[in-house]
What we know:
72% of the residues lie in helices and 0% in strands.
Amino acid sequence: MKQSMNKPWWKEAYVWLVISGPVxxxxxxxxxxxxxxxxxxxxxxxDYYRKGIEINKTLEQSSVSMQPxxxxxxxxxxxxxx
Length: 82
């Protein structure tokens, strides 16, 4: 019968194989976080919702101001018939 050799845990290859997976994930998370902080997404920094509401308001105002012209156009297209 052979005696098992008692090596310290840090000299075993399987220990480092098991430890390396979570360590690589942690390093990848830190790199990703640093990238996100250094370059914010331009879509989230601009206020598209507020700009859209203001565009809708200007479109509503333009349709109200064009109402007399549209009435005359429709009246002439139908030869004055209602």
